[in-house]
Write a structure and sequence with these properties.
Keywords: WD repeat. The protein has 679 residues and is mostly beta strands. 3% of the residues lie in helices and 43% in strands. It has three helices and 51 strands. The longest helix is centred in the middle third of the chain and has 8 residues. It starts with 6 loop residues before the first strand and ends with a strand.
Length: 679
């Protein structure tokens, strides 16, 4: 069984696109990301780490070859580094647009570079003036892969075309495109997370691409029915016996390429995987994701418990006919004639004839899990797949339930429903009804008030122009809901808004949610009332009580709002190790645009205690371990980072008050407004 303890994870880069590669002997892992850093991790893992800061822009591609590795960036730079010296050696070239992929030729003498320039650069390492440009794609080039003998190069473009180039020609002629495969990959933009990765099989007999079978060429084997969204990246095991794939659905799948077992590993990760690499000699798969994590999955294949599985680095020697059998059940030979001649090192005399490559129609393995998946017609097929009982990504940590910042549990008959920088909402339960009191810190701006609450509201939110109250559905009928309109015998879940000023054009209103739908969290900003419900709906209401918008967001934990912005915190999935798996979303409630989103880091074994905005509008969170973090550069898409600014436990220790606890109310300037609790 593959155990979770075999998975070694760490945060290596800031949020954004990350890439990964092993050095050729597997002694180090190279990662890079949007923080412009290149990191090398040696055998000692968390100790043996080297960080290279020679590049100034986001690193979008890395590749390694004997004693060297290269990195391409979004400013178009391609840099060469030495290994194991880990020293910058020189710039190979400079593209005018972002680099998307870099690959060494198998002999290590040239580098192929894909970028948004619509062409592929073929550059010599020793003589960087030795440049050949391959033109043909009509949009940005996303991915490249050499066949192991260095005779062919495959490229994928954003227009959806796959091109096969003959790059090792007689008499050093310029490379030529010998095959174009269209209608397989979806058309994308250069910034799309769909990487269109193409991966050549280690024996050179075929290559794999994520896409659909367009029927115009022969499919050697189709791997499907697992991914539920577009496949983005692929990687063959060193011996070509297994194919790993990752998709926009955050699932990682390891397939046995023969198709006899189908999936060997199938596991959902906490975020979308953007880099994938097999260890050259070990039973290990490493990958990076868009929240900056690197994960090494040791002993990913349960070789001890399942003797029929091959080690992913165990070399397999096959004849061309056996290769055909590996992928084609009828046993017919699948290697194109051109490829067979290459394996036999036979050479045609005279100029190359393009018709000679017509057999390249057989050169592709179609991974049909890329967003074109139909539901299984026979669910019993699942029982035929080899399952390993993997627990990777699983956690025993209890997911934090939804909560309202500033609220407290009921003690005897009293509780706080809300407590923030504007004021306090408290409730006293009298059994048949409650009394809700609202006290403002600044009595010159708003008058305090109280009212009789026949619904027994369980949550409240003090906003900029009014207060919002809500309660879940309950058994029986309350005094405020004498008529059982739905015939359920239950009080429906209720939303109630009350403005601060009685003369305002927006008077108070009350909304009953549909039967079976309960409020989980609420918030108010300048113009919008927001409610998250048990149906995973986010409902938007105007301050006059009209629902204006709705979208789905599963796993909500809490909401805060200010101005025209709402901050949603939700669970992406099960916890990972000792950490909650939180994601944040900054959302403009007027334009309905996602301003910022990403992983929300909290302390190990901690939950969120408070979520809100500072006096100046900075999103901020406070966890149960006493750490306050603010979201820096939150108005700049894809550039925001969470910065820890306060450690309550450290402050308590410095003051010699180890038993003090701080209950957050809000942030004003550089001060934490809180209630000091004596434990």
């Amino acid at each position: 069984m593959t155990e979770y303890k075999k998975v070694h994870q760490r945060y290596t880069h800031t949020e954004g696109h990350t890439v990964i590669s092993y050095t050729e002997n597997g002694t180090s892992i190279i990662t890079a990301g949007s923080d412009s850093l290149v990191r090398l991790f040696g055998p000692k893992r968390d100790i043996d780490i080297v960080t290279l800061s020679d590049l100034s822009y986001s690193v979008s591609a890395v590749a390694a070859h004997k004693g060297k590795f290269i990195a391409g960036t979004e400013d178009g730079t391609v840099a060469l580094f030495g290994y194991p010296s880990k020293e910058f050696e020189k710039f190979i070239t400079r593209c005018t647009l972002p680099v998307r992929c870099v690959q060494f030729s198998p002999n290590g003498l040239k580098i192929a570079i894909a970028s948004d320039e619509l062409s592929i650069k073929f550059v010599g390492i020793q003589d960087i003036c030795d440049v050949v440009t391959l033109k043909g794609h009509s949009k940005s080039v996303k991915s490249l892969s050499f066949d192991p003998n260095g005779e062919f190069l495959v490229s994928t473009g954003c227009e959806g075309d796959i091109r096969v180039w003959h790059v090792r020609t007689e008499n050093d002629d310029e490379p030529v495109c010998v095959k174009i495969l269209s209608g397989i990959l979806p058309s994308t933009e250069s910034e799309s997370p769909l990487l269109g990765t193409v991966a050549w099989h280690p024996d050179g007999s075929c290559f794999a691409v994520p896409g659909k079978n367009n029927g115009s060429w022969k499919t050697l084997y189709t791997l499907k029915d697992i991914h539920t969204n577009n496949v983005s990246i692929l990687a063959w095991s060193p011996n070509g016996y297994y194919l790993a794939s990752a998709a926009l659905d955050c699932h990682l799948v390891v397939w046995e390429a023969t198709g006899k077992r189908g999936t060997v590993i199938h596991q959902k990760h906490v975020a979308m995987i953007s880099g994938l690499a097999w260890h050259p000699t070990e039973n290990t798969l490493a990958f990076t994701d868009v929240i900056g994590q690197m994960v090494e999955w040791d002993n990913i294949l349960p070789l001890e418990s399942n003797k029929s599985l091959r080690h992913p680095a165990e070399r397999i020697t096959l004849t061309p006919r056996e290769v055909g059998k590996l992928f084609d059940d009828d046993g017919t030979e699948s290697l194109p004639a051109a490829a067979q001649r290459s394996r036999a090192d036979s050479r045609a005399e005279g100029p190359m004839d393009h018709d000679e490559y017509s057999d390249l129609d057989d050169f592709v393995v179609d991974d049909d899990g890329a967003g074109y998946v139909a539901k299984r017609k026979d669910e019993n097929k699942k029982s035929a797949l080899l399952t390993t009982g993997t627990t990777y990504g699983a956690s025993t940590i209890v997911l934090q339930p939804p909560f309202q910042s500033g609220a407290t549990p009921k003690r005897t008959d009293r509780r706080y429903l809300a407590f923030n920088l504007l004021g306090i909402v408290s409730s006293i339960d009298h059994g048949t009804h409650s009394t809700v009191s609202v006290d403002f810190h600044d009595r010159g701006s708003h008058r305090n008030y109280y009212f009789t609450d026949h619904y027994n509201y369980s949550m409240a939110y003090l906003g900029e122009r009014g207060a919002m109250y809500a309660v879940e559905s309950s058994a029986g009928l309350s005094k405020g809901n004498d008529e059982d309109k739905n015939g359920t015998g239950r009080n429906p879940s209720v939303l109630f808004y009350r403005p601060y000023e009685s003369w305002t054009s927006n008077s108070e209103w009350l909304v009953h949610l549909p039967p079976g739908e309960d409020v989980r969290a609420i918030a108010l900003n300048e113009k919008t009332a927001i409610a998250a419900t048990s149906k995973d709906f986010i409902r938007f209401f105007s301050l006059s009580g009209v629902q204006t918008f709705l979208f789905a967001l599963p796993g909500i934990v809490t909401i805060s709002a200010r101005g025209e912005i709402a901050l949603f915190i939700y669970h992406l999935g099960p916890g990972l190790g000792d950490s909650q798996n939180f994601v944040y979303l900054l959302y403009n409630t007027e334009t309905h645009e996602r301003v910022q989103e990403g992983r929300l880091p909290v302390s190990n074994k901690a939950t969120l205690a408070w979520v809100g905005f500072s006096e100046t509008g900075l999103p901020a969170v406070y966890d149960s371990a006493g750490i306050i973090s603010i979201l820096h550069r939150h108005r700049h898409p894809h550039h925001a980072v969470w910065i820890p600014v306060f450690d309550a436990q450290a402050v308590s220790r410095q003051q010699g008050k180890n038993n003090d606890r701080y209950w957050a109310v809000g942030l004003m300037g550089e001060q934490l407004m809180c209630v000091v609790l004596k434990v």
